[in-house]
Design goal:
mainly alpha, two-stranded antiparallel ribbon, 2 strands, about 0% strand, globular
């Protein structure tokens, strides 16, 4: 899995995320500015995927391969990015921001570590996969560093609920498209063969339980530092203001 080409891609993604993060901080980009840049990355990703994944239709013409429909977790982030960038401020937008900040970071990391589209520098799918997920990781981290995302205990529970709800919906989607052997959210089977934890060695129900448990554990661990920080801030003694000190 970790070939020389793969390590090169990982290094390029790390450089891209770091460079974009530094630029965003120095330039003090607003959410709209970062969102527009991420929207352009999304557009490149989807156009390249559609153009490379068209297949011949039985009755003539071409149609998009059902496996390329935007129903994977990271693909759904495209709609979330557009909503965050161009949607009006609302509670729903805040929920989406918090969810993308966490799942965009975790999902992109997993996608870069497990390159299901391959690592060949001569194929377009590899570029589509790594460029998009590097961009998504940067955008997710930007929302955390800029303070746009809130990652407290309540936000953790909300993110868990959203993930479980989406997973339940994707069971239906995979069922409806079972003739095409789709595997959205990797609920049908593991993303790759011979993975040490996510495998079918003990049957599908055990695999599904492990998959959902892994997602919830990762979300919990991701939120934990922020929850502890918030808890420490609440317990810290309040310093008296200058006016209060003068009265004393």
């Amino acid at each position: 899995m970790f070939t020389t080409e793969h390590f090169i891609w990982i290094g390029l993604c790390a450089v891209f995320v770091a460079a974009m993060s530094v630029i965003a901080v120095k330039k003090k980009w607003r959410l709209k500015t970062a969102g527009v840049i991420m929207s352009v990355i999304c557009l490149f990703s989807e156009v390249s995927k559609v153009m490379s994944d068209m297949t011949e239709s039985a009755k003539g013409g071409m149609h998009l391969d059902p496996h390329s429909l935007p129903f994977h977790l990271c693909s759904l982030m495209i709609f979330a990015v557009l909503f965050i960038t161009f949607g009006k401020e609302s509670k729903a937008k805040r929920l989406v921001i918090n969810f993308v900040a966490v799942m965009g970071t975790l999902g992109s990391f997993c996608a870069i570590m497990i390159p299901t589209n391959g690592t060949d520098f001569t194929t377009l799918p590899a570029y589509q996969c790594f460029v998009y997920h590097a961009g998504l990781m940067w955008f997710a981290l930007y929302m955390i560093f800029s303070g746009e995302a809130k990652l407290g205990l309540r936000n953790m529970l909300e993110n868990m609920g959203i993930l479980l709800a989406l997973s339940f919906i994707m069971l239906y989607v995979n069922g409806a498209l079972s003739a095409y052997e789709t595997n959205f959210f990797y609920l049908t089977r593991p993303p790759m063969d011979n993975l040490p934890y996510l495998n079918l060695n003990h049957g599908w129900y055990a695999y599904l339980g492990r998959m959902l448990l892994l997602g919830l554990v990762l979300i919990s661990l991701f939120h934990l530092p922020f929850i502890l920080h918030n808890f420490s801030a609440l317990r810290a003694p309040r310093r008296p203001r200058n006016s209060e000190m003068n009265l004393q």
